[in-house]
Model the fold of this input.
Amino acid sequence: MKNVLFTLIIVLSFNFIDSQNYDFGKVSKAELQEKFHSKDSSASAAILYRNENISFSYVSGEGFVQQREVHERIKVYDKDGFDWATKKVYLYKGTGQKENLIGLKGFSYNLVNGKIEKDKLKSDGKFKEDNNEFTKISSFTLPNVKVGTVIEYKYKVVSPRYSLDDIIFQFSIPINKLDIKIATPEYYIYNKQYNFQATYLPKLNETYEQTRNPFDYKINIISFNEENVPALKEEAYSGNINNYRSKMAMELTAVLNNRKMIEKSFSATWEEVSKTIYKSTNFGG
Done:
């Protein structure tokens, strides 16, 4: 009987995940009623859904422009989870290039007398600050966050850069569902590198598609579709926790011209790296 009940609970939990509506704004009563995470009862919060979509669009006169869209839904289980109601987005601003955050929307959802009430992210919850000469920080804090609140936000970062930030698969809280898609034009060649010190490695799917808008070229697509990603938790004497975080670096190695020949190579030997460092005005002082 215990085995039957256990199996039934597992089946129901998977059905619940499958039946979830992850469209923005479609938060359910079941998500708000949840008192603790089904697979990690110690979690102070959980990422119910994270979608990250990176793509490049061609703009006449500018070339390829990178767009990174993020949609995240988070459940807060206790007061330690309140920190997840604040998000910092680092934006590059150096060498004549500037990244911008656009389309920011956010809501806090609470269950009040059996009804779902939501509070909108307003201008007094949005902040900007300079981080250093190369980056600025655009941050926001969702309003009216309590124990049991579900928060949700989405935004887009538009960037003239073809370099990509590390793709993060794991955080200090569990993730119920993770969808990541990276679509890059064939003219940019990247070297993909997992962090093999991580104990959790997601499955990578690679495909491509052809586009003729505004001209004929191939788009290389990498995607990850994961469920039940475990939290990365600090342990005594483990050192820097980021050394064990599941992530993937996409290092730009070359840019091709319209004849698919190398126009610029970014691969470097350690000797070349050393020369670059010694020539830097920021090195030495």
